[in-house]
Amino acid sequence: MTITHRIVAEDEADIRLDRWLRRHFPSLTQGVLQKLCRTGQVRVDGKRVETATRLAPGQSVRIPPIPTPTTTPKPAPELAPELIREAESMVLYKDEHIIVLDKPPGLPTQGGPGIRKHVDMMLDALRYGSEHRPRLVHRLDRDTSGLLVVARTPGVAAKLAASFRSRGVEKTYWAVVTGRPVPVEGRIDAPLVKREGFRGERVALATDDDPDADQAHAITDYRTLDHAGRKLAWLELQPLTGRTHQLRVHCAGLGAAILGDEPYGLMQYDHLGVRRNSALVEGLSNALHLHARRVSLPHPDGGTLTLEAELPAHMRATFHTLGFTAPPPAAPRRTGGRR
C-alpha cells in the first residue's frame, strides 16, 4: 500500500472532505477519517485540513494507505416492483443533473423509528442507468405534499444543498388556514425553539427571555389569496429561512393554524360549548393542508429552473367546497443558461 493523490473532479465541487472520502473509500468510518485528518495523513494541496473542509475542482487530495476491509458490505436490497412504479410516478421533471418529485402527503422523506417506506429508500429506482445514486438536497415533512428536489450526482447535490442553505432557492407553499390573518399579508419574523410538552417535543415561538432566540431566527412572508368569511383562508407562504415546522408554527402564531395540523391547533370552545381543536373543521379533511407549490432554483448548467405542482386530492376537495379557484400548475420552465 502506497500514498496516492487524487484530483477533485468538476462534478465534486463544494463536497465536504469526509463525504468525498467516504464516496471513494466506503469502508472508512467517520472516526478513522477524523484521525487521518487530525494527524495530517490526509491533506489537500499539501495542507492540513479538517473533515468539514469543502473541496474545489482541481484540488489534489493526499490519500494515505487505506486498509482493505475484512468483510464485504451487503448489497442494497432490490426494490419491489410496486415501489419502483411509485417512485417513477412521482417524477415531475428530470434532466441530466436534477430530478424533481411531486411527493404525496403521508410519505416521509427519510427513514426513522417505525418508518418502513420513505422517499430516500426509493431513489435507487431513479438512477436511469447512471452510476450515481440520486441524493436528497432538502426535505418535506411527512404530511406536506409537493415539490422535492433530488440531485443526480454528488457534485450537483453539493451545489444545490449550498443554494438551499444560502436562500438561493425560492420556495412557495400554499396552505388553507383556520382563520383569516390580520393584516392579510406581511412578514413574520419570529424565532423558533424546541420545547417539551405533554405531546412530546414541539417547535414553538421563542420568548424574549429565551437564551437561544438570537440563534433561532425564522422569517416567513405570507399573502392571503382568498378567504371564506373569517373562518378559513388560502395563503401563499414563502419561507426565507428553513427551520423545522417553520410554516406551521408561524401560521399558528398568526391565530390561523393550518387546516389539519392538529399538533399546532389551539383547543377552543365552539358556540355549543364543545371543546375542539381549532385546526380541525367539521366537513373538511383532517389531512394537513400544506403544499409545496412552486420552486425556483439555480440550475447547475446556468439559468433558473422553475416548477409547480398540482394540489393533492384532499386540498382540491377543500378548495372545491370553499369555492377557491386555483390555477393549473405552469409547465416547467428554465430561463437563461445553457440548454
Write a concise synopsis of the structure shown:
It contains six helices and 19 strands. The protein is of the alpha+beta class and 339 residues long.
Can you walk through the features of this model?
There is one protein chain. With 339 residues, this protein is of the alpha+beta class. It folds into 3 domains: 4-63, Roll (Structural Genomics Hypothetical 15.5 Kd Protein In mrcA-pckA Intergenic Region, Chain A), CATH 3.10.290.10; 78-166, Pseudouridine synthase, CATH 3.30.2350.10; 170-339, 2-Layer Sandwich (Pseudouridine synthase). The chain has 6 helices and 19 strands. The chain has helices spanning 17-24, 30-38, 81-89, 154-165, 246-253, 313-322, and strands at 4-7, 43-44, 47-48, 60-63, 91-94, 98-103, 135-136, 145-151, 170-178, 185-189, 192-197, 200-205, 219-228, 232-239, 267-269, 275-277, 290-298, 304-308, 333-335. The strands form 4 sheets. Strands 5, 6, 7, 8, 9, 10, 13, 14, 17, 18 and 19 form an 11-stranded mixed β-sheet that branches. The longest helix is centred in the middle third of the chain and has 12 residues, at 154-165. The protein is elongated and about 80 Å long. The two termini are 45 Å apart.
> Overall mean pLDDT score?
89
Distance between the termini: 45 Å
Looking at CATH, the homologous superfamily of the largest domain is Pseudouridine synthase
Number of strands: 19
Tell me, what's the shape?
A: elongated
Low-confidence segments:
none
Strand content: 25-35%
**Helix tally?**
6
The radius of gyration computed from the alpha-carbon positions, rounded to a whole number of angstroms, is 23 Å
**Biggest sheet record:** 11 strands, mixed
CATH topology of the largest domain: Pseudouridine synthase
CATH architecture of the largest domain: 2-Layer Sandwich
Q: How many separate domains make up the residues?
A: 3
* CATH class category label of the largest domain: Alpha Beta
Helix content: 10-25%
